[in-house]
Amino acid sequence: MKKYNVLKVVVIAQAIGMIALTVLFILHYVPYLTTGKDNSEAQQMTGSSDAEDEEVIAVIADHQITKQQLINELLELYGDRELEQMLIHHAIELAAEEKGITLSADELSQAIKEAASGYENEESYFELMRSQLGLSQQRVVADIADHALLMKIITASANISEQEVNDFIAEHMEELKPKQRLDLSWILSPTYEDADKVMQLLHKGNLFSDLAKSFSIDPYSAEQGGSLGEIESDDPFYDERMLQEAMQLNVGDIVGPIEISEGYAIIQLLGRQIENEKSEDAIREWARTQLALQQIGSLSEAKQQLLNQYVTVIRK
Question: Within 13 Å of residue 81, how many CA atoms lie on the same side as its CB?
Answer without folding.
Answer: 12
